[in-house]
Specification:
Keywords: Cytoplasm, RNA-binding, Transcription, Transcription antitermination, Transcription regulation, Transcription termination. This is Transcription termination/antitermination protein NusA. Monomer. Binds directly to the core enzyme of the DNA-dependent RNA polymerase and to nascent RNA. Helix content is 45%, strand content 27%. It has a 5-stranded mixed barrel with strand order 5-6-7-9-8. Strands 1, 2, 3 and 4 form a 4-stranded mixed β-sheet that branches. A 3-stranded mixed β-sheet has the order 10-11-12, sandwiched between helices. The N and C termini lie far apart (169 Å). Helix 2 runs antiparallel to helix 4, helix 5 crosses helix 8 and helix 9 runs antiparallel to helix 11. It is of the alpha/beta class and 401 residues long.
Length: 401
């Protein structure tokens, strides 16, 4: 009786601690006892294991087929012997008999334990996969456990996640035991179980942080239309409002910048430009190049290209350090952006005008030259005709003589 109580207690403890379905644990127990019994009897018998919830034990049954003439004594029984057990039995019926399951050896018990452990591990992996597959693109908090070839292994409590080196923020340093927040980007099935992939550089990480900080974003009043990031350095966020009374930029910035500052602190000082979204590509480009002020925008819709003119003192601000500002703006708008200062634009316009004027003057000179050449040809033609006229008048010459 004490053994049965211990078995029931072990099952309840596994279900509670591991969070595994009770039926899965019972099937694992039955399979463990069946495996041990088959090993003991060398697979010579037709056995079946069932868990009895009333007694709290795994019962083992041996089944034999009723035949007229026995050929395999382990799997068959004669009709006369079978009718001593059950008078109503007929040839071809399967007769089951309970056998003692407590006489397994230590090796058999160890085998049963290994089967249980394996089943429990498989059930745990399936549970973890089902749980975290529904949490993809969710920001979670974990603890750094150790480093492995540049990757960070993060302890999430019931599961372990991986933060690859390419998904880590530049210049961020972590030590074992540090707490870290990241977004789940993928859940992969591996021979060692489900592998949870995290990221701190993905644009969705920024979107989820704003969703947690800004109630208007969480409620859908303010919509995040586009995000581009240079992780650890700078990001641009394009937002719009579904309510004309709500300023999308102001909602994301918060009172005295409190909301955006919380996001900046989480991303270790990454600068964030929040700009209003616009379907007008020219206006959107002007917003995307902020904080620089744009004077003119020329749009080439066929080639998805923009030529932007800014004041001379705004040129370096529009381009940004190492071209970062214009690069992020180009990625945000999806267009190629060419930036010029007003002085350069005026100089280019003047050169174009001069080139056009010179070409026109050259054409006029060519036309005048052609007219002069025609007149000269006409004079020469007249002179030739005059000479021919003189040479063809011999009679007049003789008369003079």
């Amino acid at each position: 009786m004490e053994t049965n109580i211990s078995l029931k207690h072990a099952i309840e403890q596994i279900v509670k601690e591991k969070g595994i379905d009770r039926q899965v644990v019972l099937e694992a127990m039955e399979q463990a006892v069946l495996t041990a019994a088959n090993k003991k009897y060398r697979n010579t018998r037709d056995l079946e294991a069932r868990y009895n919830s009333d007694t709290g034990e795994v019962e083992l049954f041996e089944f034999v087929i009723v035949v007229e003439e026995v050929e395999d004594s382990y799997k068959e029984i004669s009709l006369d012997e079978a009718r001593e057990i059950d008078p109503d039995v007929e040839v071809g019926d399967s007769l089951g008999e309970k056998i003692d399951s407590s006489g397994f050896t230590r090796i058999a018990a160890q085998t049963a334990k290994q089967v249980i452990i394996q089943k429990v591990r498989e059930a745990e992996r399936e549970t973890i996969f089902n749980e975290y597959s529904d949490r993809q693109w969710e920001v979670i908090t974990g603890m750094v456990r150790r480093f492995e070839k540049g990757d960070l292994l993060i302890d999430l409590g019931r599961a372990e996640a991986v933060l690859p080196s390419k998904e880590q923020m530049p210049r961020e340093v972590y030590r074992p035991g540090d707490r870290i927040r990241a977004i789940i980007t993928d859940i992969r099935v591996t021979p060692k179980g489900p592998q949870i992939i995290l990221s701190r550089t993905h644009p969705s990480m920024l979107a989820k942080l704003f969703e947690a900080e800004v109630p208007e974003v969480a409620e859908g009043i303010v919509e995040i239309n586009a995000i581009v990031r240079d992780p650890g350095s700078r990001a641009k966020l394009a937002v719009s409002s579904n309510d004309p009374d709500v300023d999308p930029v102001g909602a994301c910035v918060g009172m005295r910048g409190s909301r955006v500052q919380n996001v900046v602190s989480e991303l270790r000082g990454e600068k964030i430009d929040i700009i209003p979204w616009s379907e007008d590509i020219a206006r959107f480009a002007c917003n995307a190049l902020s904080p620089a002020q744009v004077s003119k925008v020329f749009v080439d819709e066929d080639n998805r290209a923009l030529e932007v003119v800014v004041a001379d003192d705004q040129l370096s601000l529009a381009i940004g350090k190492r071209g970062q500002n214009v690069s992020l703006a180009a990625r945000l708008t999806g267009c190629r952006i060419d930036i010029k200062s007003e002085a350069k634009a005026a100089e280019a316009e003047l050169q174009a005008y001069a080139s056009y004027d010179g070409t026109q003057l050259e054409d006029e000179e060519m036309e005048e030259g052609e007219v002069a050449a025609d007149e000269q040809d006409a004079v020469e033609t007249d002179a030739v005709e005059t000479v021919e006229t003189v040479e063809t008048a011999p009679e007049a010459e003789e008369t003079v003589e």
